[in-house]
Each structure stands twice: as structure tokens, then as C-alpha cells.
Design goal:
The complex is a heterodimer of chains A (448) and B (250). By secondary structure, chain A is of the alpha/beta class. Chain A has helices at residues 16-25, 35-51, 67-70, 128-134, 137-140, 153-161, 396-404, 409-425, 431-446; strands at residues 75-76, 100-105, 108-109, 115-116, 123-127, 165-170, 180-186, 194-196, 199-204, 209-218, 224-234, 239-247, 252-262, 267-274, 279-288, 294-303, 308-317, 323-332, 337-346, 354-363, 369-378, 384-392. In chain A, 21% of the residues lie in helices and 37% in strands. In chain B, helix 6 packs parallel to helix 7 (178-190). Classes of the chains: A alpha/beta (448), B alpha/beta (250). Chain A: Belongs to the iron-sulfur cluster assembly SufBD family.
Chain lengths: 448, 250
Amino acid sequence: MSTPTPIRGATPQTALPYTEQFERLKAGLPGSGLDWVDALREGGASAFAVNGFPTVKNEAWRYTNLRPLEKVVFEPAEPRSDAPGFDVLPTVRAAGTSATRLVFVDGRFRHDLSSAAGLPNGVEVAGLADRLAGDPDWIAGRLGRLVDVDANPLAALNTAFLGDGAVLRIGRGVEVAEPIELVYVTLGREDRATVFHPRTLIVAEPMSRAVVVEHHVGYGSGVTLANHVVEVDVAEGATLHHYKVQRESGTAFHLSHGAVRIGKDACYDSFILTVGARLSRNEVRAELAGTGGTCRLNGAYMVRGQQHVDTSTFIDHAQPHCGSREVYKGAIDDSARAVFQGKILVRRGAQKTDGHQLNRALLLSDTAEIDSKPELEIYADDVKCSHGATAGELADEQLFYLRARGIPKDEARGLLIGAFLAEAIEEIPEDTVRENFQALVAGWLAAR
Amino acid sequence: MLEIKNLHATVDGKEILKGIDLTIGSGEVHAIMGPNGSGKSTLSYVLAGREGYEVTEGSVTYNGMDLLTLEPEERAAEGVFLAFQYPVEIPGVANTTFLKYALNAMRKRRGEPELDALQFLKLIREKTKALNMSDDMLKRAVNVGFSGGEKKRNETLQMAVLQPRFAILDETDSGLDIDALRIVADGVNALRGADRSMLVITHYQRLLEYIVPDRVHVLAHGRIQRSGGKELALELEEKGYREFGVDEAA
């Protein structure tokens, strides 16, 4: 064999439709022709072409098998002007209050559904496509900076197709009291499977403070793949509260790769509530890149039927005097399955690190399953790190106590599950968001 | 009110109750005394309907109903109340929330209107005051971080709120000092009435000085060995349970 193997020949079979899509569509994507954008996309495309979809042989994907996703060829979602299937967009606000809310339908920013009322000076919110078309310079050095496409195939795929999403810039010293809401609506199509790759960039400049809430909702019965990448830069002394609730429909695949950088004395406080999707994965990689930083990755999930939910977090203590806290709780019913992989790395020199991780799962049926893998890797000697993982059932004596007081069995179970999840939800310091999430939990329990 | 006939029950395949006969009339307070392991708690769990306590023979008729066919919550709605020997801690559920759920679930089952927040608060205030309980105890999670005395007072509060027709008090005196015992006993005595019966289960005679029973039964080896008036309790205090083949100081 004297002819060299063409690079395309090395591409895994399942990746081929997407590399072909990329070649077909790249010239028409927003910002195409800008050198840095083209280079970013080509980098993503070639990384995905080499690796394809991750398999269970990949340690980071050991418990989440993407085979059901590989069996379907997802077509890129087309722009649409309709928004059928929903009347009321989700919000954490009280009705009638002014809102900063960016709405995306099948991955595309929708001016007609969005508003940016009452933002203070120094805060910029925009759709990524608009930004690429109109004012790309500021994002040029920032987009893609925190994501390693070679190590993360789905982030690579997102990068290849990046074109729309949200760009938030909280200017130096600016405090935004009201939450900024991002609403990602998945509609899909009945006649074919569709994919979109939203990209969210959040930059909290030094000494700023903001609350960002992501809603991911789905309607309809089309098969969809939302392949998100979220890049978050919390600069020196800034505080970012970043909350997410995912309640897509039962035919949806929801994959999200979060890359977070936390600067000196900065605080990143996050919570992810997962209720929806057939298969979902939230991967978050957070780097404590300056001394005195704080990272809070909390969450809760409630799954039933055949749902699969994967939470994979990596907290990198790269500098001393940083704290991290992670509290995850989940309720797993029917034949649903949950995965929790939480790694904390404390690098040499990251003295006085204070890391705490807890993940607890409640198994509500004999066929429910949790795979839990906490991992501590510590190279410094003066640190305080702990982790705990438990999986259990509802306690019989508690159930009997409630029933003996007249509370019917199902209601008693709901009360106990709600109490179990409440411990995680209470980690949210923002009242409006916490109460909204509590109501969502109550709604899930009532629908059991 | 309650008629227990030849009741046999097993736990984990082991027979604990070996033929209990007991009849309690309306408005009567009966005491069951017995040494450890005699089956006192088993009897209370069987009457309240706890899973894992299997009735193998006999019957329990409660106000004309076959009690044993009812779910625990149905028994509660029919007015059966078990004051637990070891009240269960329920983290994450506030005491008031729990009480409100319990009261309204039972009212609903009986076809009575549920109480709104205001009506409920008024009722609770009145009952907690009588039991010398703080508002703080209402806000805290059910029994979490409560002292032994607080837990028993909490059981008494639930009883006062739910107004059962037949209350089983399982070792209500255990872990109580004399002051707490008095408060709890006062709470229980306040509930005595012509249409409310009680079964007081205890190891010691002390409680019966405060909650004076109409009848006293001695339970040993899974059977009622002897029945009598309240003076039987004093006799047991003196002689212990040796007479019933149990070598233990009472």
C-alpha cells in the first residue's frame, strides 16, 4: 500500500454524516470568513473527525452509552419563525415584572420573543450570530478559550458548528440585581431528527455580580439533540450565580459541556436541576485559577421511565486558599438510571484547599440504578477534602410514621422525596430561583 | 370500641403474640404492663398496621370494622393513633407542615373540609401552649434534634391535634424526667373522655400514677397473663414479673 491513508479514512463511521454536514454548511455559518472563526470551526471539525462520538471505552463516558444517539442521523435544525407548542415562556420572575430574557428556538436566537429591559449600563446581552455579524472583535479572544476540543469530542462538534447562542458580558464592577434569563426551547420536527449546537459565553468582569438562569424546555415528539457548550469566565472578585433547569421532552437528547474559569477571589455558584430528556449529560469542568476563589457546583435530578441522567464534574484546584462545594441529590424511579462522576484535583501548591463533595441518590424502584464515582486526586499536603456518596431507598420507619398519622402512602412518599431533594435545593442562595426550583420539584412529585 | 380475639402475630417468622384477648370499652383507659420482650410493642405495631408484623390468627374488631384489613392511614383516619415509643425523625419536613398534612389528609378522608392556613395556625397555637411547646419546635424538622422529652411532647401534640378515638401510648414514659412526664400526662388526661379509649403500654407503674387506668393487664410470653384494676399495677411494682416466669426486677 503506497498511497497514504486519507485523513477522512480515519474518521469513525458514526462521525461521517457530521463531517459531511460541516463541509456542506460551513461557508454559510454566521461569522464565516473571519479568520479566527474559520480556524476555530476547522479545529473543532477535525478534532471530531478524529475522535467521533465518545464510547464507553472512554473513561469519562464509561457509564453513558451514546449508541442510541449514534443510530440516528441528526439533521441540522433549520431556522423557524413559528413557536408552536408554548404560550408561556418559563421564568423565575413574578408575573408582570420587567425581564431580561433571551429566547432561542431550536438553537437560534429569536428577537421577537426576547427582551432586554432594565439592564444597567455596562451589561451586554446578545445573540451570538448577531455578535459575529456585527461586533465580533470583543469575543474573538474569548470564544473557545476555555474549551479543549481534542479532549471533548462533543464540545468539538459544537465548535465546528458554532453559530448561535448567547453572549453575556457583565462589565467591570457592575451589579445586576435581576436575573438574566436564557430560554432554550426545543421544538424539533416530527419528520426527522434534528440537532443544534448552541454556544453560550458568559464573561463576568472583575468585581461584577450577576445571576444567570438557563431554562431548557422542550415541546413535541420529534427526536432532537441539543449539544450545548457553555463557557464561563468569572474574573477577579466577581460573583456569578449560574442556575439551570432542564426539562426537555422524553424524546430529547441533551448534552452540555461547561467550561468555567474562576479568578482570584471570585465566586462561581451554580445549580443544575434536571427533570427532562431521554438522555442528558451535564459535564462541568471548573478551574480555580486564582487564590481565594470559590466554586459551588450543586444540583438535583429527578428521573423516571427509561431516562438517563449523567452528571460529570471536574474541579481543578490550581491555586491555594480556594474552596469548592458540591452537593448533588437525585431521585430515580422506574428503570431510570443516573450517573455521577465527580473529580476533585488539588494540584501541588494548592495549599489550604477546602473541598467538599456529597452525592446522594434515592432509588425509588427495584430497577432504578445509580453509578457513582467520586474521585479525589491530591498533590498538596495542607488541604481539607471530603467526599461522600450514598444510594438508598426511602426509610420504612419514616414512611410508616407518616402513614400512621393518616397521610396516604403516595403522599407520604412524595413528602419524603421532596424533603430529600430539598437539602440540595436549599444550597441556592437566590430566593426567587430557589422557590421556582422548589415548585418544579413539587410539580414533578405531584405528577408521579 | 375495640375487641381483640385470640391474636397471633409473627415478626420475621417468629411468633411474638400467642393468643391475645382484650376488650376495651368506650371511654376506658387500659394499661398493658409487661417485661421487655413480652410483645408490648409488637401489639401496638400490629394495631397500627406496620408492615412486617404478620397476623397469623385471630381478629381485631374496631367500632364494628375488621381493623386488620385497613391500611395504616385508613386506621388513622378512623381514629386510631399510635404514640410511638421512639418517634421517628424526618429531616427536611417541618413539624407544622407534617401536622397540617396529617390533619388535612384525615379530614379529607372523612369528607370534612380541609383547614386553611389561618384556621390551622390558630388550632396549633392553642395546642402547643397547653403543652408548653415553643414555636421553634414547630418550625424545626419533625423530631430532628429534639430531646427525648420534646419528642414525647410532640407525640402528645399530634394526638391533641388529631383527636383520635382510640390512642395507643407505647412506653410514653421512657426517657422522660418527672416534669416532662407530668406535662405529657396532663396532655393525655385532657383528652380523656366518654368517646375516647386508650391503651397505655408501659414497663413501669410510675406512668400509671399520672394516667390512672380503668383496667390493668399483664402481658408476658405473648399472652395476657392476668387482668385487674389499677391496684394490680402497684402489686407488680412490688413483686416484679417473677410470678409470670420472668426473672426481672420491675
